[in-house]
Amino acid sequence: MPGQLGIFHTEAQIGDAAFTLYRVDFAPEQGENKASAYEEELRSSDYFDIYHSHFYYEMHVITGGEAHLCVDQTDYRISCGEIFIIPPHTAHFAIVRADRQASNIVLCLRMEQKGPETGEYARFMDTLQENSCIARPLSPELLYQFMALHSCLAGKRFRDHCRRQMLAYDVLVGLFEQFDGLRGPETFDAEDVSDKVLFELEGYINSAEKYSLQEIAERLGYAPRHTARLIRQLYGKNLQEIRQQSSIAAVRRMLVLYPDMSLREIAEKTGFSGVAAMNRAFKESEGMLPAAWRKKASEQETSFPPNRREG
Length: 311
What we know:
By secondary structure, this protein is α+β, with helices and mostly antiparallel strands. It is about 45% helix and about 20% strand. The chain has a 6-stranded antiparallel sheet. A 3-stranded antiparallel sheet has the order 5-4-7, with no helix packed on it.
């Protein structure tokens, strides 16, 4: 795009993956007068569309308003708080509407493999490819890190260089952790966890206290994101899905054991906020509403009387 300037670049290496991260601003090449003329040109047109491509990944982070991108003849709308990754050698252009205001951070990421093969490069590459051309919401912490890196001045002091380097690592690690492409050095495998911890974890998950993920993590002495990964490894589901599955099982038991109990009472006793929430979750799991399931279970029970001893 005309006036596209790389203000500074920061290099980082994680394992065999070497990154170069560029901060990009959109402005004319010279002078304030040209800046005003450039802005007027944008405002006077409904669209600003010049197809182009790069040899690096282009990341758009929307910090205000709404942005529109056209990538390989497909239009995308990106909302505030979302990131959109354009892969290398992919034709695209940004759509600027004169009647809308959007705040858009643009960072360009180049990645190459260096040193002995340790797996990080392949994992990072897979992660970037899997999440390209999809508007993904960012966590508030990661959004702040993108903004901090983009606003960091390219000073010549050693302190400025170190700060940019730390911010770049924060952005890279946060990005890949959110997309599950990187498990940091503090993470672990379920096989490395002691039986005592696994027993305690199961107790907290199934406790009537309904401990939150944060509370379970604190009791185990782990970070919440690590606890969440451990739960996913062990159960194949997250904490909320596990508890909902347990609640659905409790609803099934009570529908059979207490045929006269109202659905409202069952919802209260199984931890649902109301009958509507219970009905929605139950139908999603069992394919029918609780009342229909109870009726079907009752009919099946009466159609198969217990065996009687003959003679």
